[in-house]
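Record 1 of the preview.
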Amino acid sequence: MNIIGRRRLWFAISLIVIIPGIISIALWGLRPGIDFAGGQVMEIAGTQDQQFVRESLESVGARDIVVTTTGGDRLLARYRDAEGKDSTVTSNEVKAKLQARNAQQTSFESIGPAVSRAITRNAFVSVGLAWLVIVCFIAFAFRNTPPPVSPWSFGVTAIIALLHDTVVIVGIFSLLGHFAKVEIDSLFVTAVLTAIGFSVHDTIVVYDRIRENLKRSNEQFEVIVNDSIVETLARSLATSLTVVFTLVALLIFGGETIRLFVLALLIGIVSGTYSSIFNAAPMLVAWHTFKMKRAKKKRLKKA
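->
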């Protein structure tokens, strides 16, 4: 299998996948949920009639209503109050309508703008710190790699692959937010970080095999990288497919409250598997080829 020889094809496929998402992010961004934009969260017991709960909230002026099941006979309603209306007034009005159907409000939480801004800031910081730590860790772990690659080339190409995975997840959810009104919450950030961790694990498996083959082979760098990918391909696919099958089962049979979380994980795992095989290691070769060409040009200028 000549995976490295077709690296331009794999890069092109990645661009085709991420460009619509990048355009969507630039035009529409993400559709923030209650966690990021602020709003109210109400738990309701005694009814499974989501339409009744939704109509009750709409009748008192609530906006951006999302009603989901939480298990048993409970529902979770997320919404924003009508402009200029106090959240306590809305809650009491809904409580009265629920009691008419022998249902009751079991908990109520209001997430203010200050809290939502802090959650948003922490989400960006957590993802940024994860990238930074991964770069430094990989560079340190591969510090004894034989020539012709440097330890930092492993870290930088791994981060580019992770950036690809992040853009894929965020881009798809941007499109879903615009066309299907799908909102993101703090679980979405958890899914992104989990997918990043899984992707870098797969990438390190390939990189470790490249390092070992560099020590015992005199083949060209491109050949060594290709052989390393092929040698780890079965393991990477088997590991990823095991997780994918589990996530598909959860997506189909799991509850409504975790469906978007599972979908984000599923997208991230599939994208991470692709990028660790077809992006990260081929980028090492592209990096090495670029360095060799630049060094050759410098030698020709000196001559």
